[in-house]
UniProtKB/TrEMBL annotation:
Keyword Lyase: no
Transferase among keywords: yes
GO biological process: Mo-molybdopterin cofactor biosynthetic process
Domain of life, per lineage: Bacteria
Organism: Micromonospora inyonensis
Comp. bias (Polar residues): 1-11
UniProt protein name: Molybdopterin molybdenumtransferase
Swiss-Prot/TrEMBL cofactor(s): Mg(2+)
């Protein structure tokens, strides 16, 4: 079975001159997100302690009102009627108090304790005094000193939608809502295959061979997109032969939802990715994108014996082009697989002009000034360079047939961050 373009059905393998035109950048992103969402990972139930890094598969709702009963906001005295008040007991957090039956009575109350029925006010401990006969006196503050039932949320109210990433804040909220477990989609499992006989994995470049920069870097980017990538899932460099390519892909696909490859996305004498995909019976979702840099990126889909779709993302061999492919195709695919919303791109004002790339979308590396809302082009941004990428926060999107003039408002594709990381 030949690998065929999903959009046109025309055979692409081995026929670069007759292949369909590159997909528009925004169209390609929408297409891969749709196929990812259609192949979203199955829903599983995980205990709260094991849910971090997963994605909500159903909206998060409280099982009761929050709080479920009125609770004191301060340490003090729950009083009924005018004072001074006779002390009739104590209420600690975790207990269910008897009602205050008559005016002129009070119970000592702790922060977080249930407010007794009949309470008219809570007097802060620091605002109170004791009379000679042991009564409590003082003036309650005008604002209520307790949290009313349902102040934070009502039972069944949607607090967070399906597709929300699960983090420690969400886990704590779910626990406060009375949940012991959550229906979630697990993180995608990813693998990386590095192609290229010319690559070195240690030491400096020499004698016509270059150092592999993507093997160490791409797994870290994938983890920032929420993937699980083990050291054993990174393979290569793989020999520049078709049998080696097919064997490496077949092995990686047995345990991964997504396999990324580096290099071999064109049709040169040692570019075997397209024939390997054909041999495995894959179908193209996207085969080349009208974007610079990174034009020869691709995404292919294979359906396993279990009926589930797996994906191969072909990243160009030039390092910056490979990262362009990650932010362009891999990011929306992973969002779909996890049942998350399509990433919405923020915008920024160009501090300096950035040239267009004719009929192609131009993704230009920029450093963001979050306070000013501006994007500043960085230097050393050739497709084979990583120096500019190391100091950048993302890519400014210069749409086809436009020029990014200083002062123009443009979309920005942010580079993925780990929790706690922030743009410079």
């Amino acid at each position: 079975m030949s690998v065929r373009s999903e959009s046109t059905g025309s055979t692409a393998v081995g026929e670069p001159t007759g292949a369909p035109p590159p997909a528009r950048w925004e169209e390609a992103r929408a297409r891969v997100y749709a196929v990812g969402l259609a192949a979203a990972l199955p829903v599983v139930t995980r205990p709260l302690a094991e849910a971090d890094g997963h994605t909500l598969a159903e909206p998060l709702t409280p099982r009761t009102d929050l709080p479920a009963f009125p609770t004191s906001s301060v340490d003090g005295w729950a009083v009924r009627g005018p004072g001074p008040w006779r002390v009739v007991g104590r209420v600690l957090a975790g207990s269910a108090p008897e009602p205050l039956a008559g005016d002129g009575t009070t119970v000592e109350i702790a922060t977080g304790a249930m407010v007794p029925e009949g309470t008219s006010a809570i007097l802060r401990i620091e605002d109170s005094t004791r009379t000679a006969d042991g009564r409590v006196d003082g003036t309650p503050r005008p604002a209520p000193e307790w949290r009313p039932t349902g102040e934070e949320a009502r039972a069944g109210e949607e607090l967070l939608p399906a597709g929300t990433p699960v983090d420690p804040g969400l886990i704590g909220l779910a626990a406060s809502c009375g949940h012991d477990s959550l229906p979630v989609r697990r993180p995608p499992r990813a693998a990386l295959i590095v192609f290229g006989d010319e690559l070195l994995t240690t030491g400096p470049p020499a004698a016509g061979r270059v150092r592999d920069a993507l093997g160490p870097a791409v797994p870290a980017w994938l983890r920032r997109y929420g993937c699980q990538v083990r050291p054993a899932d990174v393979v290569g460099p793989v020999a520049d032969t078709l049998p080696a390519h097919v064997a490496a892909l077949r092995a990686a696909l047995t345990g991964a939802d997504l396999v990324c490859t580096t290099g071999g996305t064109m049709h040169g004498p040692v570019d075997h990715l397209h024939p390997a995909l054909q041999a495995l019976g894959a179908d193209y979702v996207v085969n080349t994108v009208a974007v610079r840099p990174g034009f020869p990126m691709l995404l292919a889909r294979l359906v396993g014996d279990d009926g589930r779709a797996r994906f191969v993302a072909g990243l160009p061999g030039n390092p910056q082009s490979a990262i362009v492919a990650l932010v362009s195709l891999v990011a929306p695919l992973l969002a779909g697989l996890q049942g998350r919303p399509m990433p919405v791109l923020p915008s920024a004002t160009l501090a300096e002009p950035i040239r267009g790339r004719g009929s192609y979308t131009h993704l230009a590396l920029v450093r963001l000034d979050a306070a000013a809302g501006t994007a500043h082009p960085v230097h050393h941004v050739g497709s084979a360079m990583l120096r500019g990428l190391a100091g950048a926060d993302g890519f400014a999107v210069i749409r086809p047939d436009t020029t990014g003039e200083a002062g123009a408002r443009v979309p920005v594709v942010p580079l993925p961050l780990l929790p706690g990381e922030r743009p410079s």
